C-alpha cells in the first residue's frame, strides 16, 4: 500500500506500470473484489459523469437561480471561433462548469473527490479526450490515476472544505486531474507528481466561502479555474518543468494551511465572498432574514 | 488511513450539491434508519458546526431525512424528502446547536416510533461522502475510523462472541480492536469490531444468519 506520492511514483516506476494500475492493484487487495468488478464500478462512475456533462451542456438552472447556463454560454463562444485561450482549455472549462451546474441543481453527479469539486476531473477528461482519443479503458485509467493522488491527499491532508478550505476540494481535484492528464498524454509517473505539485501550489490558501452556504457561488467558477490550472500545469510538467517543492511537501503545506485557516473561511458561509454585501443580500433573498439560532425551523404540518 | 478505496475518492454517485453535507448526511441518516430497523414516526435532528450553519443551502436537511427513509445517496427523491416524510407521517424537527464539536460536520439523530422505541446516534461527515458513527445510544464508539468496522447487535448469552469471531477467523479477517457492551444481563448486547479488512457481503450475511444475532451494521466501510 502506498502512503504518499513518492511511494506511488516509486511503485509505478519499479513495476513499470501506470499509476492507474497501482491504484487498481491496491483496490483489488484492499476490497478483495475482482479486477472486473472494480473496472465495472469505475465504468459506471464514468457514465454518470458523461450524463452529467451532457445534461449541463443542454442547460440547467439551480433552484435558487444563482447558477446555471454558463456551460452553454462557453460552448457557444467556442463555436464562434473567437476564443483566445484555445478550444481544449475552454472545452474543459465548459464541461467542468456543466457538471457543477448539474450538482447545484441537485442532479446526479459523481463526487471527484467531493461534489463541490466534481467538475474538474470529468471536465478535463472529456476535453482532453477530444485531442488524445483515448480508449474506454484509458478513460477509466484516468479516473484511477486521479483516485490514487486523491487517496494520498485524503489520508495525509484533507479533501473537505469544512476542514481545509477550497484548496482541499478544488485544489485537490485540480492536482488529481493534472496528474491524470500527464499520464494519459504519455508522461512519466514523476511528471504526474510534478503536475500535481505545480497545480496545488497555485491553489494553496484558497478558502471555502460559499454564498448563502450554497455549493454555487463561487464553487462553479472555481471548478472552471481548477480545470484551467490542471491543464496548464500538465502542459508545464510535460514540457519538462519540475516542482522545486516535492509533491508530498506541497500536500503537507496544504494541510498545515487548512489547520490555521479560520473557521469563517471553512464552509461556514461566515466569511470571504459569503460575507460581502452582495453575498449577504443574496442569502437574504433566498432564505429570508436570519431566524433564531436555537430552533431554526419546525416542520409539523 | 481514513480512506481506503479508490471509490472513496472517485465517488459516491450522488444527488448534489455537497458530498459531505448531502451524500454524507444521507449516509448517516441511513445508518440511523438501519439501526432503528423501521420507519420512525418522529425524528429530532441536531446539527452542529458547519452542518448547523449551512444545512439549508446544502440540502443537508433533505438528505438526512432521505437517509432516515432509507434512500440511497443517488436517490432522485432526495430533493423532495421533507415533503415525502410529511406524507409518510414522519414528524421532523431540526435543532441548530451552538456547541463546538470535535468535527465541524456533526449531527445527532434521535428517532422515535411512538411506541417507546428510541434511538440516538451521533455521526460525523469527514469529507467526500465518507462518514463515521461516533455514538449510539450514548455508547461511545472508540473507533479510529481508520479501519472497517461493524456493529453486531445480539442476545447477551455465552458463546456468541466466539461464534462471531469464528466466522471472521474462517475468512482470515484479523480483528484490530473490539468492544462489547450490554443493556443488562441476558438482554440486548453489542459488539463493535474493527478489522484489518473490509468484509464482503457473504461474510456479512453469514454473521447476520448466526443464531442470536439480530443485526450486523457497517459502521465504517
CATH class of the largest domain in chain B: Alpha Beta
The H-and-E topology of chain B, N to C, reads as: HEHEHHHEEEEEEHEEHE
Radius of gyration of chain A: 19 Å
Mean pLDDT over all positions of chain B:
91
Tell me the fraction of residues in β-strands of chain A, as a range: under 5%
Separation of the first and last Cα atoms of chain A: 53 Å
* CATH architecture designation of the largest domain in chain B: 2-Layer Sandwich
Which descriptors apply to this entry?
heterodimer, A: 301 residues, mainly alpha, 2-methylcitrate dehydratase PrpD, 13 helices, 2 strands, 63% helix, disordered C terminus, B: 221 residues, alpha+beta, 60s Ribosomal Protein L30, Chain: A, Alpha-Beta Plaits, six-stranded mixed sheet, 7 helices, globular
What secondary-structure arrangement, pairings included, does this model have?
The complex is a heterodimer of chains A (301) and B (221).
Chain A lengths: L4 H11 L3 H13 L3 H23 L12 H10 L7 H18 L3 E3 L9 H13 L3 H21 L4 H4 L1 H19 L4 H13 L17 H20 L8 H14 L16 H11 L9 E3 L2
Chain B lengths: L5 H4 L3 E3 L3 H18 L5 E7 H10 L1 H9 L12 H7 L3 E6 L8 E8 L5 E10 L2 E7 L2 E2 L8 E7 L4 H11 L4 E8 L5 E8 L5 H9 L3 E8 L1
Parallel strand pairs in B: 2-3
Antiparallel strand pairs in B: 2-4, 4-5, 5-6, 6-7, 8-10, 8-11, 9-10
GO molecular function (chain B): 4 iron, 4 sulfur cluster binding; L-serine ammonia-lyase activity; metal ion binding
Cofactor (chain B): [4Fe-4S] cluster
Keywords (chain B): 4Fe-4S, Gluconeogenesis, Iron, Iron-sulfur, Lyase, Metal-binding
Amino acid at each position: 500500500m502506498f502512503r504518499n506520492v513518492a511511494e506511488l511514483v516509486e511503485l509505478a516506476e519499479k513495476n513499470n506500470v501506470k499509476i492507474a494500475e497501482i491504484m487498481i492493484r491496491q483496490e483489488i487487495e484492499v476490497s478483495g473484489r475482482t479486477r472486473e468488478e472494480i473496472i465495472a464500478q469505475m465504468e459506471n462512475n464514468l457514465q454518470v459523469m458523461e450524463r452529467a456533462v451532457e445534461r449541463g451542456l443542454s442547460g440547467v438552472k439551480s433552484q435558487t437561480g444563482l447558477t446555471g447556463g454558463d456551460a452553454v454560454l462557453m460552448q457557444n463562444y467556442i463555436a464562434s471561433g473567437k476564443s483566445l485561450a484555445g478550444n481544449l482549455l475552454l472545452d474543459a472549462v465548459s464541461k467542468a462548469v456543466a457538471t457543477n451546474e448539474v450538482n447545484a441543481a441537485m442532479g446526479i453527479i459523481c463526487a471527484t473527490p467531493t461534489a463541490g469539486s466534481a467538475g474538474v476531473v470529468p471536465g478535463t477528461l472529456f476535453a482532453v479526450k477530444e485531442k488524445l482519443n483515448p480508449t474506454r479503458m484509458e478513460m477509466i485509467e484516468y479516473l484511477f490515476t486521479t483516485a490514487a493522488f486523491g487517496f494520498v491527499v485524503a489520508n495525509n491532508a484533507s479533501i473537505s472544505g469544512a476542514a481545509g478550505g477550497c484548496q482541499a476540494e478544488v485544489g485537490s481535484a485540480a492536482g488529481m486531474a493534472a496528474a491524470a492528464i500527464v499520464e494519459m498524454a504519455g508522461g512519466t509517473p514523476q511528471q504526474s507528481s510534478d503536475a500535481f505539485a505545480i497545480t496545488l501550489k497555485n491553489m494553496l490558501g484558497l478558502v471555502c466561502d460559499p454564498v448563502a452556504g450554497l455549493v454555487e457561488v463561487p464553487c462553479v467558477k472555481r471548478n472552471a479555474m481548477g480545470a484551467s490550472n490542471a491543464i496548464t500545469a500538465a502542459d508545464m510538467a510535460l514540457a519538462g518543468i519540475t516542482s522545486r517543492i516535492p509533491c508530498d511537501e506541497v500536500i503537507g503545506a496544504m494541510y498545515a494551511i487548512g489547520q490555521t485557516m479560520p473557521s469563517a473561511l471553512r464552509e461556514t458561509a461566515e466569511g470571504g465572498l459569503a460575507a460581502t454585501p452582495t453575498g449577504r443580500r443574496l442569502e437574504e433573498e433566498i432564505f429570508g432574514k436570519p431566524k433564531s439560532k436555537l430552533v431554526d425551523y419546525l416542520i409539523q404540518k | 488511513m481514513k480512506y481506503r478505496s479508490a471509490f472513496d475518492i472517485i465517488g459516491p454517485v450522488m444527488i448534489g450539491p455537497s458530498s459531505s453535507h448531502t451524500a454524507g448526511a444521507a449516509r448517516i441518516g441511513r445508518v440511523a434508519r438501519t439501526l432503528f430497523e423501521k420507519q420512525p414516526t418522529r425524528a429530532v435532528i441536531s446539527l452542529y458546526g458547519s452542518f448547523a450553519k449551512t444545512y439549508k443551502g446544502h440540502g443537508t436537511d433533505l438528505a438526512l431525512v432521505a437517509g432516515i427513509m432509507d434512500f440511497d445517496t443517488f436517490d432522485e427523491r432526495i430533493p423532495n424528502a421533507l415533503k415525502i416524510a410529511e406524507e409518510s407521517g414522519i414528524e421532523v424537527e431540526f435543532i441548530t446547536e451552538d456547541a463546538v464539536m470535535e468535527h465541524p460536520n456533526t449531527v445527532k439523530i434521535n428517532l422515535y416510533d411512538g411506541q417507546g422505541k428510541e434511538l440516538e446516534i451521533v455521526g460525523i461527515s469527514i469529507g467526500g461522502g465518507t462518514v463515521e458513527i461516533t455514538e449510539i445510544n450514548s455508547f461511545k464508539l472508540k473507533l479510529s475510523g481508520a479501519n472497517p468496522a461493524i456493529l453486531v447487535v445480539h442476545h447477551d448469552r455465552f458463546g456468541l462472541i466466539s461464534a462471531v469471531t469464528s466466522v471472521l477467523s474462517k475468512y482470515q479477517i484479523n480483528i484490530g480492536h473490539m468492544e462489547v457492551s450490554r443493556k443488562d444481563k441476558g438482554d440486548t448486547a453489542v459488539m463493535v469490531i474493527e478489522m484489518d479488512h473490509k468484509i464482503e457481503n457473504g461474510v456479512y450475511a453469514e454473521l447476520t444468519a448466526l443464531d442470536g444475532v439480530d443485526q450486523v451494521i457497517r459502521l465504517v466501510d
